[in-house]
Amino acid sequence: MQIFHCPFCGPRPDAEFHYAGDADKPRPARDCSDEEWARYLLMRANARGVARELWVHRAGCGRWIVLARDTVSHEIGGSEPLNP
Amino acid sequence: MPGLLSRYSAWRLLREGLAGQQGWTPAWEDRDPDPAYDVVVVGGGGHGLATAYYLARTHGITRVAVLEKGWIGGGNTGRNTTIIRSNYFHPQSAALYDLSVSLYETLALELNYNIMFSQRGMMEIAHNQPELESMARAANAMRINGVDIEVIGRDEVLRREPLLDPSPRSRWPVYGALLQRRAGTARHDAVAWGYARAAAALGVHIVQDCEVRGFAIAGGRVVAVETSRGTVRAERLGLAVAGNSSVLARRAGFDLPLQSYTLQAMVSEPVKPCLNTVVLSTSTGSYVSQSDKGELVMGGNLDRAPSYAQRGSFRISQSVVSPLVELFPAFATLKLLRQWGGTVDTSPDNSPIIGPSPVAGLYLNCGWGTGGFKAIPAGGTLFAHLLATGRHHPLSEPFDYGRFARGELVDEGHAGVAH
Fold this sequence. Notes:
The complex is a heterodimer. By secondary structure, chain A is mainly beta. Chain A has one helix at residues 34-42, and strands at residues 3-6, 10-13, 18-22, 50-56, 64-70, 76-81. In chain B, strand 17 (353-356) and strand 18 form a beta hairpin. The mean pLDDT of chain B is 95. The interface between A and B is medium-sized, with 24 and 22 residues.
């Protein structure tokens, strides 16, 4: 087990959190091209090393957070609210 | 193919045995890279080695190098649970994976290397009536696609696996199963070694300890790879690097719709033969088979956060083992011997990506996710065709990179169980 730090609830077991995709991914305009939409919908950063990830504290406060997490060492660099 | 003197046979075993085992030679030569090749394949796993072999054998292209950052077969090819099956839902996938099973059936003879393919059959067990009914639907679709598959009842399942808990009050009761008789297991290391030996005998260079760090791209076309052992020029370049595909794609300047996760596997201490088939529990995703050494080989779901660590969490190990112990109460007395993980490249539709990349001269074979091992002979055949001709084989066309922008996904969520 790992401890994740929820900006709202403090340190909690990682099992309470659910991974939800890449952070920093703005939704394109409604009239974007198929390629732009596919990039938004399906392409992934899939970083090897420190990644900025969207997680939801599903079994806790239910709020969305951004975790800086190393995908090789699994170390957590920091956490912040998605919508401060 | 290897010359008569180096062919493996019963006669050869006997002769070398009488000569004190002194006459064996290395199965392939570990090479330094040349400065240039017709085709460079990055990744010395099953797919990369098979691709090199078929390039040489089927297409007569022998100025080929396989560049591997570690040792051949040391990634997912040596970390999977060795299951081979083709019970996929959509016609495109059925054609792909059935080709693979067919090639596996004759592979030991073709490569002159015993890959120990054992078609012991695989049962996907239904634990309730609705599951059994949805299985019947899947079986009908698969049979229309020409895959040998049948739904069998509870008595037949229990006859095939007497150690299953027959109680209707069990946590995971047995209602019936989807049976593929041609499915089974093979020796995973032997698949890598067999392809490596056969490819090297045809002139392919196998280069280990050679990490690809970047690409030389001129006028939108890839012309060389920068490696830890110098620059290697290539007319065409193929990536077959599974979990690290996104990392290399980014260095070439494009994105992939892949997410890398840890898939773990584990084995029990070895016991006498007690399990006849490959058994998968449909509701839980856990599965088990018995190796020729007697170990129970177990696997199940992915770890829950993206990872390149090649190690799995204890929580998932528990969730893999606990339903199997409910299904087979006798297994509860066994100890786990080893547990390990591999980095798998999962795609949005649980189907692979085979085809040209956005960079000219650079081709993709990735996105096999949790099911790459079973697809090695087919992946190698189709990727070799692509690298040799620059065009898709008809069977790889549906798996093109362009399908994501076109919205033509081949959604194998149903059959995309993690193995």
